[in-house]
Design goal:
Strand order of the largest sheet: 5-4-3-2-1-6
Order of helices and strands: EEHEHEHEEHH
Distance between the termini: 31 Å
CATH class: Alpha Beta
Number of helices: 5
Shape: globular
Number of strands: 6
CATH architecture: 2-Layer Sandwich
Largest sheet: 6 strands, mixed
Radius of gyration: 15 Å
Helix content: 40-55%
Structural class: alpha/beta
Number of domains: 1
CATH topology: Transcription Regulator spoIIAA
Length: 163
């Protein structure tokens, strides 16, 4: 059994993304591609992100979620919604400053449209490095704590020789 899955539905420019399992670095190119396709959709209004079945989420993924939240806010001037019932994940997203860019719900959505699975993209090491760097720069822009937390990682990635 696969340890991760991303599901998606869209209706009239409102996207629902559901993350299942361990959402880590290996999905960064898939997720970045998804973020780009959603934010380039002229009908895009907002997004609902469901983390109720997410076991683990890494900082790269959080940076990409922040990126889509900021795009949604720019597009519609409304905060997108993030659903998290796992206290550990809720603590992480709150500490990253997500309460400033999302409406955070701590109860599951009772009904969502039919979701289809997003195929996972294969990515080169360089593509992954670029996505990790970009995601962490987005996180650093959210608050001072994140800037301190990720400055060394970002600096190291910026000076790393392309593979």
């Amino acid at each position: 059994m696969v340890g991760y899955k991303i599901l998606q539905a869209e209706k009239q420019g409102i996207y629902v993304l559901k993350f299942i399992g361990e959402i880590r670095l290996n999905l960064c190119c898939t997720l970045d591609n998804l973020v780009d396709s959603i934010t380039l959709d002229p009908q895009f209004k907002t997004v609902v992100i469901d983390l109720t079945e997410t076991d683990i989420i890494d900082s790269t993924t959080l940076g990409l979620l922040a990126k889509i939240a900021m795009a949604a806010q720019k597009q519609s001037h409304f905060l997108p919604t993030l659903i998290s019932t796992n206290p550990d994940i809720t603590r992480i997203i709150t500490s990253m400053g997500f309460n400033k860019i999302f409406i955070i719900l701590r109860e599951p959505a009772s009904r969502i449209e039919e979701l289809e699975e997003i195929p996972v993209l294969r990515a080169s090491e360089q593509d992954v490095r670029d996505k990790v760097l970009d995601a962490h720069k987005v996180l650093m822009g959210l608050n001072k704590q994140n800037r301190e937390e990720f400055k060394n990682l970002v600096r190291a990635l910026e000076f790393e020789e392309p593979g």
